[in-house]
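Postdoc handover notes: sequence design on the structure in folder B. Input tokens:
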């Protein structure tokens, strides 16, 4: 019983030269300063977090965006007092994550990436269990979880282990919210669920924001970054940038061409070999080519036509994924 309680009761100006975009007029819920985390012994050390810093505003949806192994889970486990940092300090709701861990565990909700509820308990039994831990009841805070829990309430007598991925997700979120936390940590909550459930989940997060709950959400999906108020792009334990999604895109100054042909592998190799192309990579049904500012579209098209058939070439606007790819290579 204690282990599950521990998971759910968690009831830039920095050395990476990231510039903060934090408005000064609003209060902060989370402050992270030079947090570091190292795993392993001296010979086999892995530095999961490398002196990262950022602030999260009260009532903000703040996204930690990055691939597997970027350090997202380590960061969340530190902020929810499950893991001790090896350097730096952090505060959640004004409480230190090391000294004031008991206070923080009563104030935050944590939904880990892996489903961690009791598989043999029913939906209702799981929710009642977590409500009891926090000395509350489902009825007392039903208004907060109503929009989420009402979707799975018809299955309240079904065992949690028999739920679909999307229903497990809704149950886990309900359990993380049942004590009305001020800060909610969601570690890759939409991984492994279908597109419809992903959309429903983000709609639920927007409604929770209206309840003045601060939400930190990590995800490997770049398209979800655009649904956050601000994002931190994380790679190999370092923050590459912190900005609004629109701000991240606006900082990308290079032109991008989208190209498609009959033989996509040959096309990609040709793009990489063209002297005016700085980078090229697959992007859905197209390849994206990051161009030098002085390139000409006609010259590029003529070059590609030499060895490619049915060429389609057009200018396109960058998105978060293009920006992340560029920042990774700096």
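Designed sequence:
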């Amino acid at each position: 019983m204690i282990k599950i309680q521990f998971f759910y009761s968690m009831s830039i100006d920095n050395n990476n030269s990231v510039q903060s975009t934090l408005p000064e007029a609003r209060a902060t819920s989370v402050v992270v300063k030079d947090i570091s985390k190292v795993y392993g012994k001296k010979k086999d050390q892995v530095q999961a977090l490398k002196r990262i810093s950022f602030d999260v505003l009260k009532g903000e949806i703040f996204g930690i965006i990055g691939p597997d192994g970027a350090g997202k889970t380590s960061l969340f486990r530190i902020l929810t007092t499950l893991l001790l940092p090896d350097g730096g300090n952090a505060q959640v709701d004004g409480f230190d994550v090391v000294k004031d861990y008991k206070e923080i565990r009563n104030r935050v909700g944590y939904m880990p990436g892996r489903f961690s509820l009791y598989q043999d308990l029913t939906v209702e039994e799981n929710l009642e269990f977590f409500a009891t831990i926090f000395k509350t009841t489902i009825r007392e805070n039903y208004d907060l979880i109503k929009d989420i829990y009402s979707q799975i309430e018809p299955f309240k007598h079904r065992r949690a282990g028999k739920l679909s991925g999307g229903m497990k997700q809704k149950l886990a979120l309900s359990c993380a919210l049942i004590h009305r936390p001020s800060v909610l940590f969601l570690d890759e909550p939409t991984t492994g669920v279908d597109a419809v459930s992903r959309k429903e989940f983000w709609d639920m997060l927007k409604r929770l924001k209206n309840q003045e709950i601060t939400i930190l959400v990590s995800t490997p999906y770049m398209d979800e970054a655009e649904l956050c108020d601000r994002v931190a792009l994380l790679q190999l334990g370092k923050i590459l940038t912190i900005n609004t999604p629109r701000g991240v895109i606006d900082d990308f100054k290079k032109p991008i061409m989208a190209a498609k042909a009959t033989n996509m592998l040959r096309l990609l190799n040709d793009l990489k070999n063209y002297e005016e192309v700085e980078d090229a990579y697959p992007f859905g049904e197209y390849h994206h080519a990051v161009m030098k500012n002085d390139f000409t579209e006609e010259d590029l098209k003529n070059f590609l036509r030499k060895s490619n058939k049915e060429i389609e070439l057009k200018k396109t606007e960058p998105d978060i994924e293009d920006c992340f790819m560029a920042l990774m290579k700096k």
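Context for whoever picks this up: The radius of gyration is 22 Å. Don't rerun without checking with the PI first.
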